[in-house]
Amino acid sequence: MSYPVRYYCPHCGAVFELQREGYLADKSVTPYPLVGWEYVAPDEDFESADGVRLVCGEDIAGGEESDGDVVRWTGERSSADDVEDPTRESPCGEDLYLSFVRFVDGEEVEPEPERTHTTIAGDGPSGPRGTSGPRGPSGPSGFGR
């Protein structure tokens, strides 16, 4: 038997209900997917997935065996402190991710932080006559002419 469980969009605070089984344990609702989690649409079999990818404001109707909508946006707004922009139009149409607790070999898996890549620009400054490295003073005494 499924129950409506309430969440809110982390972008704008729009409140929605998701029909789901009570045994699933929530990890988080985030504006980005957790690294290593696999997400499915709410009208797919998300109970065997790591989470659900939703679009803020998009109702998802249940199938023939369902008692109603799988996802229903309530028209309410959350005033939680972690909403990115509480003044933003609601619902905002952005993607959001409901992640469930995952276990591997009986241990809860913590999400890895999102990897960031840094690009170092160019080869650095050019020295005299095209050599690389910093420019120093010219002349034997260390002072330029």
From TrEMBL:
> One short Pfam family name for this protein?
DUF7969
- Extent of Basic and acidic residues compositional bias: 74-88
Q: Which residue stretches does the UniProt record annotate as biased composition, category Low complexity?
A: 122-138
User: What are the start and end residues of every segment in region (Disordered)?
Assistant: 74-93, 107-145
Which InterPro entries does the protein's record reference? DUF7969 (IPR058275)
* Sequence ranges assigned to domain DUF7969 in this UniProt record: 1-143
In terms of superkingdom, the source organism counts as Archaea
- Any idea what this protein is called? DUF7969 domain-containing protein
Q: Which organism is it from?
A: Halobellus rarus
Lineage, opening ranks: Archaea, Methanobacteriati, Methanobacteriota, Stenosarchaea group, Halobacteria
